[in-house]
Amino acid sequence: MRIAVPFSNPPEECLSIGPSQGLAYALDQDIVLKLPFQYEVTMDTELSHCWDLSMGSFVAMEKEVAVYEALQAEPHPNFARMLATNKTDYLFLERLEPLQTKWKAASQETHHRWVLELLAAVSWLEKLGFVNGDLAVRNIGIDRANNLKIFDFGSAISRSHWDYANEIPRDRFNLSTCIHFLLSGVDPLADVQSRAEAVEIRGMLEAGRWKISEDACLLADIISDGWTGKERCGQVGHEADLDNWR
């Protein structure tokens, strides 16, 4: 089924990859347009599941807008910037380079700084009353000043949501995966080929049976706690463990 877009000639560079809650287009080297996708409505009821997907995309946009509006009131340097607009059905965002693209050329010192910036961003988001809901390496970018920034908040959950408390351990799991990648360049779930393989690897991580990469051993306890769900990972920061990086 064809996706309806609000222009006759879409921008050539679509940045959306894989399953997505919305469409992202690069307008130029500096600006990204993000909008919900909408399948065409037809008389064919066998395609009604597509309409459900469309509605889910609009809900995700509402969640993302809520996070960016909170960040406008209380900004933080480690989030992608939303460019000023009075619209709520699409977003103009700062364009970032994918973390995966920038990681290899960066120094170990920079990797360590990026970990601190990621922790600062996650902590700030919780201060604003949200958990990310989809924290992942693919949703982390690097700006022109070589600073880490996070984006994509279509799965964000607010503190008032009934499942907020249960989402925190899931967010910690994803945070550990991102920290492991920042230190080592390895995302254990990056190359899975099936759902069964993803479930198997995730089970190994949760059971503490995954060998942490040598370059990530400095924060092995923190990473392991996030993956296995230990209580001490319930608060972002770990200042004592990170003092030697400052």
TrEMBL record:
Pfam families: PK_Tyr_Ser-Thr. It comes from Fusarium piperis. Residues 1-246 form the Protein kinase domain. GO terms for molecular function: ATP binding; protein kinase activity. It comes from the Eukaryota. InterPro entries: Kinase-like_dom_sf (IPR011009), Prot_kinase_dom (IPR000719), Ser-Thr/Tyr_kinase_cat_dom (IPR001245). Signal peptide: none annotated. PROSITE patterns: PROTEIN_KINASE_DOM. This is Protein kinase domain-containing protein.
